[in-house]
Amino acid sequence: MTDMWGDLVWAALADLKTRLVLVMPGILAMLTLAVVGLAGAWIAARVTRRVAQAVAFGLSHIADARAAGEPVAFVVLVTGLAGWVFGHLADRSGSLAAPMLAHLAVNEAGAIAVLLVQRSTRCACPG
Fold first, then answer.
1. Do residue 28 and residue 57 come from a single domain?
2. Residues 12-27 pLDDT 10s
3. Cβ pair 87, 99 in contact under 8 A
4. Is the pTM of this model over 0.90?
5. What is the spatial distance between Cα 47 and Cα 50, in angstroms, rounded to a whole number?
6. Domain hosting residue 2, numbered range
């Protein structure tokens, strides 16, 4: 019976490198989860929340895109990215003031740009 156990031990040791290659990713994943722990869950929840916020912000601009005759998919994508940035600002500042002011600044910059383009393209026809 001793020879059987000895053979098993030697077979296991001889094949240790292969076993480590197969088992090591699982061990590293478990260690990472243990180290990261709740921080990982918190980060995942934060990212999920920000994605949901960005999607909602982008989708809320569909009516505006249709009213302006703009491509809806492009407007949803761009405003969704802006929603992601606004969410980041809210997380970093801990307040809604930063994203609200950034949103106001973007909207006003767009309005000023429209006025400047309209003014520069007016016909200077002799009266």
1. no
2. 665 555 555 555 555 6
3. yes
4. no
5. 5
6. 1-36
